[in-house]
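Render this sequence as a predicted structure.
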Amino acid sequence: MSGPISSGPMALGALDLAALLCSRVCHDLISPVGAIVNGIEVLEEDTDEETRTFALDLIQKSARNASARLQFCRLAFGAAGSAGAQIETGDAEKVARGLLEDDKVKITWNLPRELKPKNQVKLLLNMLIVAVGTIPRGGSLTVEPAPDGPGYRITASGLNARVTAIVAELLGGNPTQPVDAHGIQPFYTGILARDCGFSVTAAAEGETVVVSAS
């Protein structure tokens, strides 16, 4: 693929897309990997038992977090099998819960367990990233089939749930600002949706935000 991925106001070539996605993945991994390194340094330099116990706990938590991020990114951004491969939605649920569900965010998963074309599953996972970004203080995500045909609907509920105008533009593939490593994820979500023959949107509905693709 050598031509532009987007032909809107900010055209983006395949090489730029790949570079920005790599930057996004690296950004997500820097924090837990850095914490592991810091914990190891403490173990090497400090003999206080309480401090060493704290360092071990930090290493364990950070390693689990890094593993969850890698497993999620493998499905959401990676090849995840050969061309034309299918992925089970149960695998998507597992990695989504592993990364996104915690004390602040709860997920209700109402999708049937079935094999789907890999780009549709990648789309679903990327929609979840967009949805969780609309509830920065935490809340709930409800994942279900689109009500009007094939596709997905994710409802994000939480205090001050909101979607920014730039995210909506990025999903539509026509951003009015340059696409950077922060904005590449919703932009990529739109690319996936169009590849699947869907249109993806994120909009406020009452006190919730609904991210839908159909």
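Summary. The two ends are 26 Å apart (CA to CA). The chain has one domain: 10-213.
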